[in-house]
Amino acid sequence: MVHTDVIRALLSNDNTVRRQAESTYTQIKAHQPMELATTLLTLTCFQTNSTDVETRMFAPVLLRRLVETEGLPNDATYRAQMKTQLLATLVQETQPPIRRKVSHVVAQVARQDASWPELLPSIVQLTQHPDPGMQVTALDVLATLAEYTGAKLKLHHEQLGNVFASFVASPTACTEARVAAWKALSAFVVHLESSDSLQPFSHLLPPFLQLLEGSLQNHDEVAARELLTSFLAMTEVHPSLLMLHLDLIGNAMLSTAQARSLSTDTRTLALECLLALFEHATQLFRSSKALLEAVVPCLLALLAELDDVPAWVDQFDDHKDEGTGVRVCDAGAGAIDRVAHSVGGKVLVPLIMPYIAQYLEESTSWQRQHAALFALGLMAEGSKDYLFQVLDVWLPRILDFLQHPHPRIRHAALFCVGQFARDFGVVARGKNFQTKYHGQVLPALLPLLSDAVMRNRGSAASVMSNFCHPEHCRTQYILAMLDPILSALFQALQTSPRQVQEQAITAVACVAKVVGDAFVLHYSVFMPVAAHLLTQSQGKQYALLRGKAMECVALIGQAVGKEAFLNDAKAVMDILLRHETDDSGVELQYLTQACVRIASVLQEDFVAYLPLIVPKLLQQAATKPDVVLVDWNDETAATDDDDDDDEHDGIHEIVVDVQGQGKKKLQIQTSALQGKELGLNMLYQLALDLKGAFVAYVEPALNVVLPLLKFQYLDTVRMLSGLTLAKLLEAAIAGSVVTSTAPHQVLELIFEPLLTALIEEGDLECIVGLSEAVASVLEATRAAADNGYRMGIPLAHLPTVFDKLLAVSHASVLRRVQNLSDSADDDEEEVNAEDEEAILQNVVDAIGWTIKQYKHDIVPLFVEHVAPVVNPYLEPSFPAVIRAHFICIIDDILEFGGAAVPPIMPTLLTHLWNSLEDTNPCAIRAAAYGAGICAQHGGMAFEPHCVPTLQRVWTCIQALEHDRVETEQAAARDNCVSAVGKFCLYRAHLVDAPTLLGLWLNCLPLQSDAIEARAVHADLVTMVERSNMDLLGENYVHLALVLKKFADILALDLDEEFEPVLEDETKARLTAVLQHIQATYPPAIVQSAWSSLSEDDQQVFASLQ
Hints:
InterPro entries: ARM-like, ARM-type_fold, HEAT_type_2, Importin_beta, Importin_rep_4, TPR_IPO4/5. The chain is mostly helical and 1105 residues long. 70% of the residues lie in helices and 2% in strands. α37 (715-734) packs antiparallel against α38 (742-760).
């Protein structure tokens, strides 16, 4: 079969003929690439193939791919002839679609061969062709060249700028050519870098807007969308280009987005352009108050564009727009969320709340009330702090709508409350949503679990799951309503369709997890229901329900504990292990997680199941990624509806621009990646829960997990790999005897690769995880060494370890300083500030664990390798939030450095004093802790510095606020109070201990810094145990105050809304102290002190009995 016949056969509708042609084509491509290129060029060119349009359409696609993969022949004459023929074809070809395909061949050849001096002049000259169609072709070629060879075209920015301007700004040029010019301009501009080269293009923005307006007025929405798409790409790369015309552009996008006469595609694309301005030019937008004020009502109006669909009450999903798959209201919803994240609550909340109040009052329009409620939920995460502050006023109004007669308004109110429960479950300081509002929310939510509209019933169960999140909700919030909640959920499981059952059974699991062993009374009711759903719900459509039933069984088991669950656990495990599931489906995820959760309950009794589970998890984690980089062309673009990020049948597709090669499509088998991540996560969990019982699987797990530190396709896999390695080390330690060398061998195997992965990692969240893993490894190593295991990083290797860790911290410091300097607004959220805080803390912890392990031996290494690097960060001029982290390293040296510390103590104290004289509570907190350490461990070397240090600490106590426990200042004050107590305990001969202890006692109890609170309260017990008369006073005059403080501490410890402020051991000692006081102190004094206590205080002491 000759080459031409093979090409034509590739287009055959006969599968057999086409497959044979594909096989033959592959062989020709491998063995005769030059001859194949000649054939394809012949079929591409109009001058050599004027009659067969079908092959002229197909051949350039194959030719471009061939040039890309095989390159150009080395024959210079052949190359020159190819270039000449391609340029001639651009002029002679009569079909515009074919000319576009030829332009991609031209661009690919230009990418491969830079010596084509006549190319650009020829194309520029072609833009002046009298035929508008040829002008469009020339501009299309320039756009394609920009995609493929943009870096080279930058040298001609003045010439090309004039060409583009001559069309875009020309009222006489045809619309199609003006649109093509704008597309070419946008493709070219993204490659420019300097402001000087960009500036000339700024004046073309008003003509662009006129062109856009004209296209819309002429009902040419296809052209309008092409203009908007190109504008969007330019905005994302060079938002500063829009600075002079921000209001003009913003208003144009607003008017387009609001125009109901336009298609959903066009409106949502204009909205996307507007959002790009918010996200990429946030500071510019903040400066335009008028534009911000115009955007807010627009977004609410879009959110209110809902049709009244009677069938809604019988559906569980909304029908999407037939064109884009997105309704205008959905686009508006996404926009509110993104705007909230972009500009923040400080800007958005004052702007939007008056409109929301107005919408909520419009009782004649359920759509507007629906929009207002949805908007509140959507903006919750991005406006978190500011919206939460006004929730006392707004929540009662929102809860009232849960009883509204219109089902869709009830649904919107449920959405809002569910978002609040999720997004406000964690707050910076103080009480979270569940703590503040459980008494209002739960009674209002309960009736919705029996709503006549099944969709709302399912939503109510979902909200219950959000509210009863185990990490956000405390047991006592649920206990008072536990019976009616579980009764309503039981009825929902018995009387509702599958979609509601899926939500209800998850809610049962969440409630069980929160109330813990209080669920035992309901165990016999719900466990059979969950088991029934697991075994009797058959068919693919019930896969999710079965998965949630597995989850429920496991979570109930965790809630009630091993004793109650053990009898059923074996039967449940037998069901799970016999269960047939699609290895790539969601059911597998639930099954695996359920097994691991049951393992956490059964502990050593689960070991028998490990041979059946762990090999599957190892296989999942070891799955090779199915990633393919394929060609992107007009055909695929058309079928993908211009989406840059799509997913079909478990394949995630991303269109990427590969420099020098144009657009490519990256195809990733998402199910395989998800399975890999799941397997790795479950290995982590098993090692965490089973500890030493997992030791037999440490080695095979290491073989799988270690290589994943370099896994390039999913950041979370690398992060989980690091964290899993740390848990595998802990399992190896827990499962080995003290004389075993296995734990040290594991340490040697994992530590260097883990540290290397941390140094080489570029993803910020992954750096957080890997730095945490390094710190965890060093913590486990130190603990093992303290328990007699012969393991640890050799002292000789620590300088290298320190260098790498400090390099990570230095990079983090630079990013954090940059973020702090870029924050023009004090209240503006710092970019990735939490991640940078975590990285610094992890690095400091890692160094700290080595100090704790090697103690005085490490001080010389600190002086030589650590101090020179961190000293600049300890200067008073350095940002205090960063400085505080490195003071913690000094604290560790002071606490564990022992006899090696005195020579360097004056230097270290200088840094502490500087921070004690600071106003930043973070720096004060760290330095105050160090001051207390000096008092306790400083020895004789600290005596000359004792009083000056104490004076600085006491000054901080007086300066810091003490009436609010949820502030950073209060936490810093707690550390200062702790330090004063240590001065009185360990340096009483140098200070006025009676006076100081009286002041110190009045500062108790502490609660802002729970760790320090527990330490200080233990110190108080210690002083009374030792009959410290400086504290008790002459003739026990302060005994009544001491008892009062004991009562206050106990009451605070009993309050489950706050973290415990007493260790169990301290509480036991306190009980013994009280008995000792009653038995040995003068009875009259004890009786007088006791009678001074209130009834509540006396009842608190009674709780100790």
